[in-house]
Amino acid sequence: MSRFWSARVHTLTPYVPGEQPKRRDLVKLNTNECPYGPSPLALAAIRDATDDSLRLYPDPTSTRLREALARHHRVTPDQVFVGNGSDEVLAHIFQGLLQQDAPLLFPDITYSFYPVYCGLYGIGYETVALDEDLRVRIEDYRRPCGAIILANPNAPTGIALELEQIERLLEEHPDQPVVIDEAYVDFGGQSAVTLIARHPNLLVVQTLSKSRALAGLRVGSAIGAVALIEALVRVKDSFNSYPLDRLAEAGATAAIDDEDWFEETRARIMQSRDRLSDGLRRQGFEVLPSSANFLFARHPHQSGAGLHASLRARGVLVRHFTVSRIVDYLRISIGTDAECEALLTALAGILDDNRD
Ligand SMILES: *Cc1c(COP(=O)(O)O)cnc(C)c1O
Fold this sequence. Notes:
binds pyridoxal-5'-phosphate, PyrdxlP-dep_Trfase_small, 11 helices, alpha/beta, aminotransferase, Aspartate Aminotransferase, domain 1, transferase, seven-stranded mixed β-sheet, Aspartate Aminotransferase, domain 2, three-stranded antiparallel β-sheet
């Protein structure tokens, strides 16, 4: 605390990211990173971009990357916005589109950055409770609001909504911006990008951090009607003209163009997820049906905090949230098969210890 702080800073409750440990020997299943390296073509493009041209500013409009994303999603480049991670894209969306007279709606259990942005930008919001199976019920959003944001698949549950439900939400709120955060959509969800042509109120947010294995490069995107994208460009150009550096744009463009790497890697992760899910169920865990690169699971006779701490003592990091509705759940990122095995072995040991 300091008397030099702006008044707003005193009120902030910042987001707390998952631990990035210094120790390399931990099995790291806590931040939903990809267990495999990025596309070799992306790494080569980054190396190729590492030359004297770094003395020059990058393209402020990241046109090559927006063109690659437009090709991938079958939209036009002016329907694509890019930023320094989807967290930055989300921040611009909160400031540029979600600050309305009526409150913003989002689920009580979802990406915990949403209320943080509301605090930063002074946006009023209401949370809508997930049902008893921790699912989003579109009917519950039929209430006065200024805008809606949903993560689909939701985090940290991993549960996905069907596209028909998203479309119903859009139809029921034609006068409000509706943002769908698709950070995990490539692991089994259906993207709402196909609905953009028919719904000028829809904005879809994606990231290269999870399914493209580029969390360290910091690249995210938003796709929607030109008028929505224009709002984001205005905010961006009032904040930072160059959110993507030369290496990020080169690597991200090559990563988007490498369809073979993408298809192979996400298939591998989905396979490991289904195997890990079976393994956890055999140990007595309840595992929510996941369309993401993580599982959300609890054991009927163990506390989430206890399991989290015991796993850490055995060198396995998973994510635990101290929110009462989900306090006994663990969020487990899908690792390599060897890492998933290490988790199951550690859990078997812990369950065994706790039986005595
Ligand atoms: C990981 C994640 C993001 C942020 O991704 P970055 O592009 O790395 O900033 C956004 N939304 C959700 C739901 C996420 O899980």
